[in-house]
Amino acid sequence: MIAFSGGVDSSLLAKASLLAAEKYHTLPPVGVFAVSPTSSQSDIENARAVAREIGLRLIEIDSSGELALLAFQTNAPDRCYHCKKYRFSAIQDLISGWEKEGSPRRTLLDGENADDRGLWRPGEKAAAELGVRSPLAELGIAKDEVRRLAREVELSVADRPSTPCLATRLLYGMTPTSRLLRRIEAAEDFLHQKGFDVCRVRVDSPVTARIEVPAAEIPRVLANGVKEAILEEFLRLGFAAVSLDLEGFVSGKMDRAASGDE
After folding, report:
1. Looking at the structure, do residues 233 and 194 belong to the same domain, yes or no?
2. 230: domain range?
3. What is the tens place of the pLDDT at every residue in 24-46?
């Protein structure tokens, strides 16, 4: 069983598992996608499309209950631990149910790669506690190698930018409500439509949006017509103030305070 997001890491892992199953005549892997308000519709559709592309059987489970967890609502720096534990536990329950019905035992895998280790990743603790294996990380395969291998096997997501869950856009301590997550999703979708493939809409309060794009693309945000269109749309979505992060896009920026890198 593979905790499948449709990103390049889990997609490569699934593809490799499918090739191995074919070569060694073993059971093919099954992908599991946890559908939650923290998932954007584009990510859900992408996961389905990639699963069809590589011939992976994909099961979708309802993970919306994670929003009701007190630890999730508190949105402390270890939020990802509680979310991953909730999701991995649900998949492990699915595996246990299959085993009771006589199906062969399955191991749960995730797509963590070698670069993820050493970063602020509270979800790693949940994976370790529940016996989840991370073959890419265990083999020392870093992100650049993941993308190279993905291109080698012609995965459509080989160069797809990373898209962590929408809850990562919120300042720690803010409650991730479904309404706020949908607002962030709509704002980022609008930026994508404007040609900003890599972007984040960070939220430091429920009504403030801070836009991150790669530093080289900051002038495009400020260009005549683009800035006005973004501001108009963001105000329409319910944001009262919109700012542009002058540092530019930095993955995991909200984790700086949590990891002590201030």
Report:
1. yes
2. 166-259
3. 999 999 999 999 999 999 999 99
Q: Where are the alpha helices (DSSP H) in the chain?
A: 8-24, 41-54, 70-74, 79-100, 123-129, 135-138, 143-152, 178-193, 218-222, 226-237, 256-259
The encoded tokens of residue 230 equal 């973004």
Give, rounded to a whole angstrom, the gap between the first and last alpha carbons of the chain: 38
CA distance 98 to 92: 10
Does the pTM of the predicted model rise above 0.85?
A: yes
CATH number at residue 105: 3.40.50.620
Render pLDDT for 172-224 as a digit per residue (tens, 0 to 9).
Answer: 999 999 999 999 999 999 999 999 999 999 999 999 999 999 999 999 999 99
Cβ neighbours for 151, distance < 8 A, ≥ 6 positions apart: 158, 159
Six-digit token string for 120 = 């602020």
From residue 190, alpha-carbon distances to 42, 168, 211, 226, 256 in Å are 12, 18, 12, 11, 27
